[in-house]
Design goal:
2 strands, mainly alpha, flat
Length: 235
């Protein structure tokens, strides 16, 4: 346990008492997470709408370079975590490149059925907003059970609402709910872990860790919905 915060339980699924100032760091973490997600969204749009980017990241060489960059940028951001704008700029670059790497699958999904991308985005966004809303009401402690309850309720309601607009079908809504639940579990668990990180006095390392989890939720959602049959191409 680090010296910055203490915990009422040692499990990431329990309740973590926040030291003075740690609640504000947690809120800043989620603000930076939103910034990373926004730049990833922009990177995904740029990549998916550029045949050049789709071609580059469809090749094995482009994929290897992308993996190297994605692994290097977080280390650079952590190294500059206390350097103000430099660390934030690198964090944004990591988000942009992460979105750019998805160019091939996003372009394919857009060709098959644009609603698949919209579904994945909305489910991921709902998971993020639900947990973020709870985090911004946190003052003295972070309760994983409470965050889970709020997140799961929103994920289930959101998946049902989404089905009403996009007609995902019974299997699609069940998969969406399942992925939403997985996303909430992943984000809440990761938040509990970052509160115990030695670098928990800085929002940048925590934001990087949470972004990785949220990014994986989006990719998993996209792959699952696409494999369900994003249907034929919509002209």
């Amino acid at each position: 346990m680090n010296s910055y915060g203490s915990s009422l339980t040692y499990s990431p699924w329990g309740t973590t008492a926040l030291a003075p100032g740690q609640a504000s760091v947690l809120k800043r973490t989620y603000m930076l997470l939103a910034l990373s997600a926004a730049t990833a969204l922009f990177g995904g749009y740029v990549g998916a709408t550029s045949p050049l980017m789709v071609g580059i990241f469809s090749s094995w060489l482009g994929w290897i370079v992308a993996l190297l960059v994605i692994n290097i940028l977080p280390r650079v951001a952590i190294a500059y975590r206390n350097s103000g704008n430099i660390g934030v700029a690198v964090l944004m670059a990591d988000g942009f490149v992460s979105g750019l790497v998805l160019a091939p699958i996003l372009a394919f999904a857009a060709y098959r059925n644009p609603d698949v991308i919209l579904s994945a985005l909305l489910i991921s966004a709902l998971v993020f907003m639900a947990v973020t809303a709870y985090v911004f009401t946190t003052k003295r402690s972070f309760s994983a059970p409470r965050g889970l309850m709020i997140g799961l309720m929103v994920a289930i309601f959101g998946a049902m609402l989404l089905n009403g607009f996009l007609q995902l079908g019974s299997l699609g809504i069940l998969i969406s709910i399942g992925v939403g639940i997985f996303g909430v579990l992943s984000l809440v668990y990761s938040t509990g872990q970052v509160l115990r990180m030695p670098e928990s006095d800085s929002a940048i390392p925590a934001a990087l860790m949470l972004f990785a989890g949220l990014f994986n939720v989006f990719v998993a959602t996209l792959n699952i919905l696409l494999s369900l049959g994003g249907g034929g191409r919509r002209d």
